[in-house]
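Hi W.,

Here's what went into the run:
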Amino acid sequence: MKNKEEKIDWNQVIDSLSEKNEAFVEDKFVKPWLKTFFGYDEDAMTRQDSPKGSKKRTDILALGDNEKFSVIVEVKHHGSKDFPDFNPETGIVSDFEQLTEYLRTFYDNVNKSYIPIGIFTDGERILVVRNYYGMVFPIIYIKNLKSGKGVVYWSNEIVKTIKKKLNEPVILTTYNNKGGVGKTTVSYILANYLSKVKKKSVLALDFDPLQSDFSRLFHLDSGEFYDVIDWLEGTVDKKDKKKAMSMRDGNLVLALAKANESSNEAMKKGNLNKYSSLSGSITKINSSAKTISKLMKQGITIPQPGTTTPLHRKFDVVIIDSPPGWWYYSMLAISLSDVIIPPINFNNGSSVINLVRFTNQYFPELFKHLNPTTKEEKINFLNLRSPIFSHMIINFFDKNDKEVKEKDLDQVVARYLEKEIKDSFIRNSLFRNERADGISGRTFDAIRLPLNRSINQLSSLALEDKDRKKVENEVLKLGEILVSDLFPFMRS
Ligand SMILES: Nc1ncnc2c1ncn2[C@@H]1O[C@H](COP(=O)(O)OP(=O)(O)OP(=O)(O)O)[C@@H](O)[C@H]1O
Ligand SMILES: [Mg+2]
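Here's what came out:
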């Protein structure tokens, strides 16, 4: 492999692409590049028909093996205007819809497994996305392969980074700045279903120190707990008697935000005025986010209550339950996440308006300050931290409500989203091709989570055993609805 790298003058190859069409870029650059740096054989790189029988075909599907990951590459002509754009000022990555579509639909032909990586390139610019069972989000953005340290360096870095990223947990955060929309309920349903039914190793983080609802749903509301962020950052003595977390069955680990400190402490910590300026608090959030995401990637050591043996674990999925509002804990949750799952209350328009405020104002503001920091990073940075939105969760959906028809639902939400979020990053994940049908078609990806009486009982602590069983069954049923849409290819 080393020899081949030396034989090809990659700068020259890229220069030769200038203004050339897609087929040229594919033959002269993409295939040799995949062979040299990723190690795919010629005959492992194919075009793939859609299993659904549509006319769509992937540009390149490179099949991996035990050692290598598989990848779908979408090739554009050199200098294409259709190239997804990352705006480092706002954290917005636009338009990789088609690649997402491929990754979500082309898995089935190939050994019945999903393709974990997608690459978008015009022969010079590269965007890499990760596909976690159908949830697709960007992980690497290279503005220009030729810049700085050059093609060979960046190509090797890309391969290295992809391999690393594939071992990292996917971090999901439920968020809406509006309260009471079902953030905690959705977090709870997902944590239970993914760990119990899908057998994923799940870390559940309660980032809401004022209410600790997530912890309470797991019946962990008494005793002394670390503040989860202090604990994640490693600033507490882990031999301390306080409970850092509690294990639930083999796959699920819960970490609590609840401190034995009073809520005042949490308020103080979360109070941005504690820091002299907005940029001061941003600095704090940024450094916490960096420390914590590094720890989550390496796996974390869990002190088990009642024993002296700490346990080192890596996780498939991390679920962060964010508090409402826009302050330290929610900003940190957003900064850490790969994917934001936004619930709205179907009967409450202001839950949509709040979401729009977040996507159009708070989110860009935060990312302007967070990422990236140096000029060098702005030109070339591998570790993209720019969460996308998953499907919107339309919660409290009552299909028996005579007032509400499916079509109205699309109209209600589309009225806000179509108009307000038209040009923002949210389009990539919430809006799909069907957008062209207008509001009468299915204009956004949303999951209807029904109004559910027994879910309501979750918050009641004094459940009788038989009721608890009933509620837990409901939780798993709702988990099926959520997960089959969020992660359509996930098998246990
Ligand atoms: N689909 C549903 N059907 C019936 N009740 C629900 C549903 N989803 C949530 N609830 C109930 O609504 C209340 C608010 O839900 P939840 O606590 O999950 O919202 P939240 O967004 O986390 O709130 P907060 O902003 O206070 O953290 C809870 O009592 C919960 O049991
Ligand atoms: Mg909550």
